[in-house]
């Protein structure tokens, strides 16, 4: 039998997460290909972090349903179902095959251990490196993420680093074992644009060299456009659009995606204090108040009562024959297409 | 001439650290000789790399941090030497908004209690103004009975802005105030600042690292590098026709919609000289003179100042 190279690395099916109350993440389905960089965007509270943490097995007291299937390591075969995986097996996968850069870098570094001992710990757990080779790898990692004095940095405690430096250390820890899949939750938000560009080049370079796939969570659409092959938009716990990046930025199909793009300030449109950004009115419905119709309806300029409020629009494929997959959740997508 | 709401002159901050008991003394020049004005009803943006001293400048301007040297003048009054007691009277006129709104909202108090405190300081005890301010920041009156934990990050940021506005400040220092917000809420808050400037004549020192956001909201923009204010100009002039090589490099590094990643800048050719221009080691336009002294900010065009010896340079912007 020939090996199917097109099968995804991660396949999330109907993932639903709640914390005893209403569903926070609701019937989430998407795929990440080998070596693919996917930007996960969407309003604050839409479930980007909770969904990722659920796949990583890092949510406590959560009720998780559905499936998240990780394809076997190259050549090893055998898929792993991550939902419900026993904690011991999950720990063995985490760091080595799937890894995460957390949204809050302070809370995820041990304040009592030097940067050096935290990096060595990860390298010992996931690689055969020892002694001078281990130290050399730790230094190389810090250099890779743009730390100017890597040897000095090894001896420091986290509190001695600026926010931007901590963020870079977090990235070094997450990529130390060259995982197959990296969840990066707002990894460049605390960084100035120069370091941000450096980190984006680094992450993209890693993908090119090692084939690491990445889920890149961000509010910054310019950053998403610089790094992503594909964009997935979440709104109120659901996928509302999933499109190749180049298609998404040219002609987004879902009204909420369009609202996001017009709210984002653009460097080319410097307005010198006379700016007015197009903010959509109203707010995202909270998890208990999402209703049964299109969840964007109360804010949508294109809403039509009979069509949009009748039922929840399904996620439908709108790609033409031969085109890359493109799905959208909008009852009027066809009429509204440019 | 109208007086500036905030005028800082020659502000510097040097941190001195000693390594061990008898170890060598290490000096960090966090801010060096920075001067600028924020006019009435003006939004001045401040950008620059991480650690360049933006927050330090903002805190010194509010006298929350003692300057090593330099002057802070608020609406014509030199407050540099004011005692804490005298400062208390003027502090209401300047409000600071942080990146993290939790810092200014007590989690155990209701929003109503939090917002009534500034009014009590002004001797007012009805909710009329609170309700108007809530409307101004796009929040509903029923927010008053809730605690901060019941709001999303963006809503909390708007509430902390409401709290600051109720002090009736003349100057707001917004330090990364919109950085953590998603684009929709960020757009609402940015529009709010511009609106308050136009309607109430509010002055804002707007610190940020997203150049697109700063470009939208600011009348003028200053650029900092390693503690030095290297360029100040009207926003469009600065973005389209930068005159300092660091500004040009910063603009080139910013991500754009639909554009590929900018290429890696060329590695440094010379090592850093302690005396010379702060940017010399990374500058493509460096000459031997640049290694001998740090140039002062000087006029290079209408309302356009740059701290680069090569005043003839005209660089590519966005
Ligand atoms: N442990 C928890 N218990 C209950 N609710 C939670 C918990 N963690 C998150 N939530 C809720 O789940 C929703 C989704 O949160 P999540 O952190 O995934 O949002 P996000 O899309 O990552 O937003 P942001 O862009 O602000 O980081 C929010 O309404 C949040 O309040
Ligand atoms: N208490 C301190 N002791 C020693 N150095 C300090 C102290 N506080 C700040 N610094 C240094 O002063 C410099 C300026 O810091 P500041 O926080 O003003 O930078 P910033 O421009 O606001 O950076 P960012 O964009 O990361 O917020 C940095 O090099 C920082 O390490
Ligand atoms: S389904 Fe209707 S309300 Fe929802 S996004 Fe589409 S047009 Fe707008
Ligand atoms: Mg999140
Ligand atoms: Mg700062």
From TrEMBL, chain A:
Location of the protein in the cell: Cell inner membrane
Keyword Cell cycle carried by entry: no
Any one GO MF annotation of this record: ATP binding
Q: Which UniProt keywords apply?
A: ATP-binding, Cell membrane, Membrane, Nucleotide-binding, Transport
SMART domains named among the record's database cross-references:
AAA (SM00382)
Q: Please indicate which superkingdom the organism of origin belongs to.
A: Bacteria
* CDD domains per UniProt: ABC_NikE_OppD_transporters
What are the GO BP annotations of this UniProt entry?
peptide transport; transmembrane transport
Q: Where is the ABC transporter domain?
A: 10-261
Provide the topology term for how it sits in the membrane: Peripheral membrane protein
Spell out the InterPro entries in the cross-references.
Answer: AAA+_ATPase, ABC_Ni/Peptide_Import, ABC_transporter-like_ATP-bd, ABC_transporter-like_CS, Oligopep_ABC_C, P-loop_NTPase
A Pfam cross-reference name: oligo_HPY
The family classification in the record reads: Belongs to the ABC transporter superfamily.
What protein does this entry describe?
Answer: ABC transporter ATP-binding protein
Gene source species: Gluconobacter albidus
From TrEMBL, chain B:
**Keyword set for this entry?**
ATP-binding, Nucleotide-binding, Transport
Cite the SMART domains for this sequence: AAA
Q: Which GO terms describe its cellular component?
A: plasma membrane
Q: Which GO terms describe its molecular function?
A: ATP binding; ATP hydrolysis activity
- PROSITE patterns assigned: ABC_TRANSPORTER_1 (PS00211), ABC_TRANSPORTER_2 (PS50893)
**Where is the protein situated, by its record's location annotation?**
Cell inner membrane
Q: Which residues cross the membrane?
A: none
Q: What is its main location?
A: membrane
Which residues does UniProt call coiled coil?
none
Q: Which domain of life is it from?
A: Bacteria
Domain ABC transporter: start-end pairs: 16-251
Q: How does it sit in the membrane?
A: Peripheral membrane protein
Identify the PANTHER family for this entry. Answer: D,D-DIPEPTIDE TRANSPORT ATP-BINDING PROTEIN DDPF-RELATED (PTHR43776:SF7), TRANSPORT ATP-BINDING PROTEIN (PTHR43776)
Q: Give the similarity note.
A: Belongs to the ABC transporter superfamily.
Q: Per its record, how is this protein called by name?
A: ABC transporter ATP-binding protein
